[in-house]
Design goal:
Pfam family, one: Glyoxalase
Distance between the termini: 49 Å
Protein name: Glyoxalase family protein
Order of helices and strands: EHEEEEHEEEEHEEEEHEEEH
CATH architecture: Roll
Domain VOC: 7-132, 154-273
CATH topology: 2,3-Dihydroxybiphenyl 1,2-Dioxygenase, domain 1
CATH superfamily: 2,3-Dihydroxybiphenyl 1,2-Dioxygenase, domain 1
Radius of gyration: 19 Å
Structural class: alpha+beta
Organism: Amycolatopsis cihanbeyliensis
Length: 322
């Protein structure tokens, strides 16, 4: 394997009502909406990007929210849990905060020396908050609802559900350059580089589970980082030479992407770190206005009219909290 990812870039999921989605991720989880755009392949729905203050790779959970989308089914061939990293001493605070917000959670469990609190978003998407004992140096977004000392630092890991681990493990190690880290029963952990929050994936072997159905409340795909377009192009060529069916390079405006599936069926992406979310609006105004790529801009009036109304909480903008 010539190329190695440095970690997670983003996770994209299917949501339901976009207003409820924004309220939960901005006010309950305390993330920032860093881009309000549309699904470039289906501009009849939003594409909402949540992350830290600037939307750095490794902090992003994004959504295609269809208001009338049917519920999906978690299962084999999917990323079945998306985990965020929080400070080690903050799990108790999050338990109280979520309870006050009416969100049901699991009891805190300790797994691989990390405290884990699981929950679901309004559409049933499985989430976890994980406190890593060595901490997480990434700066948080402070939106007023979640104090900075407790705030989410970014993605921690994803869990892929499979019926057997060998073929998926081969794709992770030989296709993405990850290395096997440890095993805990039927859970196999792989890491990018030295590992740690934002560079982890767990492969959960559940042979009796049903196959997943991608719809509301499930993950659509998992994206991994590559530094630039030249590396991505060479990486794509290597994957194709290995017999992997890979898309052409697609322009996602804020990064470039290629897509392919791991053997169990989960859709994976390799996305560039650049150019980032500040290319079409100032950093202080991220997420405030509907942004469209140049090829959709001529149809702005029709696209905007077809989208449901979305009222963003004022605290998404830094100047409103000063």
């Amino acid at each position: 394997m010539t190329f190695e990812t440095s970690g997670l870039h983003h996770v994209t999921a299917i949501g339901g009502d976009p207003q409820g989605n924004a309220e939960f991720y901005l006010r309950t989880l305390g993330l920032r909406l860093v881009k309000t755009t549309v699904n470039f392949d289906d501009p009849g729905t939003y594409h909402l990007y949540y992350g830290d203050g600037s939307g750095r790779p490794g902090t992003l959970l994004t959504f295609f929210p269809w208001r009338d989308a049917p519920s999906g089914r978690r299962g084999i061939g999917q990323a079945t849990t998306t985990a965020f990293s929080v400070p080690e001493a903050s799990i108790g605070w999050w338990e109280r905060h979520l309870r006050e917000r009416g969100v049901q959670t699991s009891r805190v469990v300790n797994r691989d020396a990390e405290d884990v609190l699981t929950l679901r978003d309004p559409d049933g998407l499985a989430l976890a908050l994980v406190a890593h004992p060595q901490g997480d140096p990434r700066d948080p977004w402070d939106n007023g609802h979640v104090p900075a000392e407790h705030a989410i630092r970014g993605l921690h890991s994803v869990t892929l559900s499979v019926s057997r681990e060998d073929a998926t493990a081969g794709m992770l190690t030989e296709g993405l350059g990850l290395s096997f880290s440890e095993r805990d029963g039927n859970r196999f952990r792989f890491q990018a580089g030295a590992g740690g929050p934002g560079a982890l994936v767990d492969v959960l072997v559940t042979p009796d589970a049903p196959h997943g159905l991608v719809a509301a409340g499930t993950v659509h795909h998992v994206a991994w980082r590559t530094p630039d377009e030249d590396t991505q192009a060479a990486w794509r060529e290597e994957l194709v030479d290995r017999g992997v069916q890979v898309t052409s390079v697609l322009d996602r405006q804020y990064f470039r992407s290629i897509y392919f599936r791991e053997p169990a069926g989960t859709l994976l992406e390799v996305a560039t770190d650049e150019p980032g979310f500040a290319i079409d609006e100032p950093l202080l105004e991220l997420g405030r206005a509907l942004k469209l790529p140049p090829w959709l801009e001529p149809n702005r009036e029709q696209i905007a009219a077809a989208l449901p109304k979305l009222d963003l909480p004022s605290e998404n903008n830094p100047e409103s909290r000063s």
